[in-house]
């Protein structure tokens, strides 16, 4: 698209548009004749977010119809709902998450660099932010919310979901539910995930780049939201077959060839695809972590074939005053390196180290040493 070649003027990252939404019950095609409900509506940085959506080939009209659906707006702005609300749009393409006004400021401040980074790193693991809006029903209160990419499609069948931060402190069996799905945490995760060598290398490189970006933006407290879908029992692939269906680089020369790939910028066919997305039905082999309890879905000692769905989420929490106070307070009770509220530099290193242990290469000598 030609529009993507143009730079976004700086003022567009501070712009806002105010509109009014009207709904009717009898006939949505003739809203003006059957108005029953009015909402004040505000879009933050509409041009910038439209460009972000264009990067993902999201049609503007379809986007607005999805997030402005009457049932969605009613649920988001319903009185008496306090705290964080996370819902799916009716078409299940987008996640809507209510915000505090202070969070909106962090997102808007970060938006120029976030847009530039995603435009350059199309295979990023970071969750995609598609819009920030405010809705206010007539006579009601303002509700701020963001619109994000869906991490785990509803079409995925039986799938166990984890929210992993890389620290065990307070990270077990809270079992929060989102859209009826149980979300497990770090201490519940008892798997090693084996990727073919090339995919493993590129995944860790992208993870490093993403974490360095978040660190530069002074962001912490993010996590890897991952869904593990066990596949029907069949022959377990342990020969390093590429996740894109191609044979991986032979183990004996993988390190040298990976270095060459990194310098030349070459990618395998899957990664070159404009629609390529890490963490979307990525094939892997799962084994039980040493010391972990036997996983009911893994009967074969060689492991079980799985599909992985994941993204780095909650990427707009900065290390501000409240988090610094939390760090000081919890450091008096626990090891300061084990708590969630740590500096962006410490958080980034710990998060990467943890995922390096979970995601293994099929040619790794470590096996299930974690």
Could you explain the architecture of this structure?
This protein is of the alpha+beta class and 370 residues long. It has nine helices and 14 strands. A hairpin with a 5-residue loop joins strand 5 (129-137) and strand 6. The chain is globular and about 60 Å long. The protein starts with 15 loop residues before the first strand and ends in a 9-residue tail after the last strand. The model is unreliable at 25-36 and 239-269 (pLDDT under 50). It comes from Erythroxylum novogranatense. InterPro entries: PInositol-4-P-4/5-kinase_C_sf, PInositol-4-P-4/5-kinase_core, PInositol-4-P-5-kinase_N, PInositol-4/5-P-5/4-kinase. Keywords: ATP-binding, Kinase, Nucleotide-binding, Transferase. This is 1-phosphatidylinositol-4-phosphate 5-kinase.
Give a concise summary.
Helix content is 29%, strand content 24%. It is of the alpha+beta class and 370 residues long.
Which structural class best describes the helix and strand composition? alpha+beta
The profile of the biggest β sheet is: 8 strands, mixed
State the order of secondary-structure elements, H for helix, E for strand. EEHHHEEHEEEEEEHEHHEEHHE
Radius of gyration: 22 Å
Total count of helical runs of at least 4 residues: 9
Mean pLDDT: 78
Low-confidence stretches: 25-36, 239-269
The number of distinct β-strands equals 14
Shape: globular
Distance between the termini: 46 Å
Strand order of the largest sheet: 8-9-7-11-13-12-10-14
Helix content: 25-40%
Portion of residues in beta strands equals 15-25%
